Amino acid sequence: MRVLIIGGTRFLGAYTARELVSRGHDVTVLHRGNTPACLPETVTEILGDARDRSVVEPILASGGYDAVVDTILRAKDLEWYLPVLEAHTKQLVHCGSTGVYAPAGAMPVREDDPTPCPAEFGGFGEKLAQDAALAAFRAKTGFRVCSLRISNVFGAGDVPLDAWGNRRPKFFQRLANGDEVWVPDDGRALLQPVHAADLARGFTAAVEAESLAEVVYNLSSERAVTLMRYTEHARELLCGQGAIRCVPTAQILATGQADEAGLRFVCEHMCIDSSRARAAFGYVPRFDVRAGLRDSLRWMLHRGLIRGALAE
Asked: Looking at 52-204, which runs of residues are DSSP E strands?
């Protein structure tokens, strides 16, 4: 199968490119060249702005692609992308977000649950607009599209989420140093990150599926953990001995060091049900939270983003 990836040089896109190649697919990546690519030699790279119709339409018209995987397109991009895709390819697999469910009214969250997207959590209204554009176009034309709503991602290649809802190496360095760190409120909010390699297998499986009955599918790890346990895992893996203290959110915000939207979001219970994806295209994550954190922290140590040792 010939697959075009829109935005495939950094993290999830690169993982997906490698997974598709390992499955025998012919992969092309369209990107601007701003991020050094770590891709298999067989991948074809096209440099260009994926949001410029004059660039994209000739590529799709001449490429003979069976599928397009998109990790970056916005709702306004999809307005013109979808008719072009329908004319020149067979399907689109789009990257959505489980952030649209916050604050969750029931757990685990499923695809048909409410999607409130309050502004104070930041950014997820745009992801919901993308899903709405996909659903409307499929209902109108029958073109095969799906949005894979992913939870926050970790794994080698990026700093994992910290207990304040940011991706700060400093938080993990404090754990490695044995310094005291704070987790918000009572530390019992649920977090369910997913490894980029598991997502890559999920995106590939969606591309390969014979048919997909739904537009939206959740992809996450198998189980959620509390913020306290998540932080304890990181401390143990970094051989730290410092205290982890529960502190009110307001006190953390008063330090001026926290992003308010990120902190409020991470304090919401996010527990994700991926059973629809399991039934539709065999999605089964392999990394639990501790294993995913180990992989992320090993990468951070190797890159010099933090200093210390990793527990065996």
From this structure: 67-70, 91-97, 144-150, 153-154, 181-184, 190-191, 194-195
